[in-house]
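Lab notebook: predicted structure, single chain.

Context: the supervisor wants predicted structures on file for every construct in the current expression panel, including those that have not yet been purified. This is the next one on the list. No modifications to the sequence; it matches the entry in the shared construct table.
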Amino acid sequence: MNQLKILFLESFYGGSHGDFASGIVQNSGHEIQLITLKDRFWKWRMKTAALQFLKKLPADDSEFDLIFCTDLINLCDLRAFWPGKSPIVLYFHETQITYPVPEGENQDYSYAFQDCLNAHLSEKILFNSSFHRNEFFKKSRKMFSKFPEKLSFRNHEDVEEKSMVVYPGCHLSRDREIENLKSRKDSKPPLILWNHRWEFDKKPEDFFSVLRQLKSSGVKFRLAVVGESSQVKPKVFERAREDFAQEMEVWGYLPGKEEYYELLKKADIVISTAIQENFGISIVEAMAYACIPLLPMRLSYPEILPAEFHKKCLYRGLNDLKSRLLMAINKPEAFIDTKRLSDQMSRYRWSDHAVHFDRVFEQVANNSKRKSGVLK
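Prediction complete. Output recorded below exactly as produced.
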């Protein structure tokens, strides 16, 4: 197929969204023009991103074969204020209808409703996991059933039919020195890694609670706590910094990717206690660098972790996590074959993975041209 010309609108360009955008642009076989807004004020982005993009867009979309967007945007405004008929492919990193509500707050259904409108307006909807896709349609049906009047949208089945799962790629090096990574120094206890956002939905209190129990029992370990954090950090992190001062080797956000990857090479065990995770890029990255994963038996984790590792690496409840973590600390080299796991994570490497997005783009562009009569 001839090279497509694609317009990529990313309204939250930073963090994992920024990595995702750069991965596609750098590795796609098609020409992608990326237009971005800064990664701040997510609610404001959902309401106004389309209007802000108007200042950066050409007069219409006639020069593009399709428009690619991620979720923090109002596609109703884009269609209303920007002339054009190019098909839209929408990628859901997250959806407000599936995101957990912090304790003491009520869900604002206006943002969830916007996700649904965006889905209806798109020619193709991509989710980053089957878990996310299933949760979205289950909860959207439930939400619509609560409305006081029946709305004349398409049936949910029609929207579901045009959706599919395409996992995000990850920036993984081909030279991971796995054999060297497996040669841990016996003189030091294993390094446990937290590499998630410092937010309530990652349940940091559960993570640190288990570590406190092990420490009080005399178990030796080292600790690295990294990841993005907002201005308002959960207080549990400051307490943990004091409680694990002796164990802490790395603390805070690592702005440099190379510094982060060097940490992954040194880490032995990565843990998640999340109550919200639609894919888990940070976990995939850690597994690619030969970390032992200990993950809850929920969310997207059973999906991204190969089935052969489920028995050892997926836990049910915090007592189960503590038991598995103790085994991994005592004999990390015998817990699982981390080299085999690392090799399987290479399937997510952007240089190999971008082809899955290209196939979707080609299919959508071809279907659009057939409908318009360009292809006979």
